[in-house]
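Take a specimen:
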Amino acid sequence: LVPLSGDYPGIDLWFQHKVVPGERLGTRYVFRVGRNGRLAALGIAKNELGEKKICTVRVHPSYFGSGLGIRVFDNLLHWLQTDRPHLTVSEAKLPLFQRIFDGHS
C-alpha cells in the first residue's frame, strides 16, 4: 500500500490504526488483486454507523488502463451493498477515475 500511496502521507499509520482493527471487527474490507506474486491493486471500504464509504483505491502504475480499478470498485460496491457510497477524489486524481464515474468499463 505504501509504495502506491506517495500522495497520502501517513497512510501506513491510518492502515495500522483504522483499517486493521476495522477488518477484524467487520467494519472495514480490504480487497487485494495480485499479479505475478505482487500486489497490483487494492481497495479499502468502510461500513460503520450508517456510513458506507470507499476509503481508497490504488492500482500499480504498470496496470493502469487494464480494468483492475473497475474490478476493485465493483468488489467494494458489492461488499458495501450500495452503488452510491461516500467517496472523495482529489482534483489531481479525478482524471484517473473519470472512466469509472462515467460508467464505462
Remarks:
- The two ends are 24 Å apart (CA to CA).
- The longest helix spans residues 11-25.
- The longest strand covers residues 38-48.
- The mean pLDDT is 84.
